[in-house]
């Protein structure tokens, strides 16, 4: 067993906050447990709730190197694990024309011709590492098989070179938008964390952290209005990233209240679909007419 990175749940929260990430107790607890148990952490949730940022902040908080495997449709072993540098191998074979096959083979299947991809790089890294497998649900099911193998015992076998075992286990964080269910087998190996839109109080703190110049009352209005928009069954609910962008916009405009005309003029920062824009404007107007906060 490796020495854990954190001694308590509180320490996780504090160090993440210092690294610019405000974690709820639930988030801090799951991170603490993943670290203690040496298990990968699977973080699932809608877009823009801080899944990727959690991995980045963890790396900053622990001084670890962040190695990122960005998943996409069609990603395969040669992009995720390793591949041989065929062009260079060919050149080497051509250059050593008089060499026998045995000799040439020993040469071209050596370290010098190996292109390590994120999974192999993370396993071989002797320094503290956070391995981020981002948007796992975008990869095909075959990729999950590979992840299971690698994350199961933290070793990789390259037939020509032998088995490479992790000298130091990376902290592994997988993210998913849940566009499809990940396999039971993969889930079983991970601790699971569902990240959702934060409670208003936490979101206000996030806004304060990112946009320190913004007036507190205005920050509160932004968060309240974003909360109302999230309750409207829009095609794409605004994420934390959009709340922060909106706050920045208001600061840049020097707005001092979030009145109807300001909202009208800046709603494009938060809502990215015409239909959402129309629906939100109508519902907000109705709310003003009825003199109540929507949502
Ligand atoms: N708890 C938090 N503390 C501070 N900042 C946060 C927090 N959560 C989210 N953010 C901010 O929100 C932004 C969006 O987060 P991030 O990119 O991690 O979202 P995501 O969940 O990975 O979304 P996607 O599914 O679209 O990739 C980050 O750049 C960060 O600035
Ligand atoms: Mg992300």
UniProtKB/TrEMBL annotation:
An MF annotation (GO) of this entry: ATP hydrolysis activity
SUPFAM superfamilies: P-loop containing nucleoside triphosphate hydrolases (SSF52540)
Short name of one Pfam family: AAA_5
Organism of origin: Gandjariella thermophila
Protein name: MoxR-like ATPase
Domain AAA+ ATPase: start-end pairs: 37-201
Domain of life the protein comes from: Bacteria
């Amino acid at each position: 067993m490796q020495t854990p990175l954190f001694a308590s749940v509180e320490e996780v929260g504090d160090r993440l906050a210092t690294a610019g990430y405000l974690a709820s107790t639930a988030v801090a607890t799951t991170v603490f447990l993943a670290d203690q148990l040496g298990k990968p952490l699977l973080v699932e949730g809608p877009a823009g709730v801080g899944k990727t940022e959690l991995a980045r902040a963890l790396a900053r908080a622990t001084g670890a190197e962040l190695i990122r495997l960005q998943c996409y449709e069609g990603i395969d072993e040669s992009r995720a694990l390793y591949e041989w540098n065929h062009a260079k191998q060919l050149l080497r074979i051509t250059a050593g024309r008089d060499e026998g096959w045995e000799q040439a083979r020993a040469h071209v299947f050596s370290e010098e011709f190996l292109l390590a991809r994120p999974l192999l790089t993370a396993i071989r890294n002797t320094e503290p590492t956070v391995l981020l497998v981002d948007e796992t649900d975008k990869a095909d099911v075959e990729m999950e098989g590979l992840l299971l193998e690698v994350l199961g015992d933290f070793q990789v076998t390259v037939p020509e070179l032998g088995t490479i075992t992790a000298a130091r286990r990376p902290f592994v964080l997988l993210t998913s938008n849940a566009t499809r269910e990940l396999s039971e087998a993969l889930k079983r190996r991970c601790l699971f964390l569902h990240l959702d839109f934060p409670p208003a109080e936490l979101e206000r703190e996030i806004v304060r952290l990112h946009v320190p110049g913004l007036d507190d009352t205005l920050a509160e209005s932004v968060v309240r209005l974003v909360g109302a928009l999230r309750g409207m069954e829009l095609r794409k609910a605004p994420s934390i990233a959009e709340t922060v962008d909106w706050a920045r916009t208001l600061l840049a405009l020097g707005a001092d209240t979030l009145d109807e005309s300001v909202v009208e003029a800046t709603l494009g920062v938060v809502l990215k679909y015409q239909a959402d824009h129309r629906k939100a404007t109508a519902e907000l107007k109705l709310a003003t007419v009825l003199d109540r906060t929507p949502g």
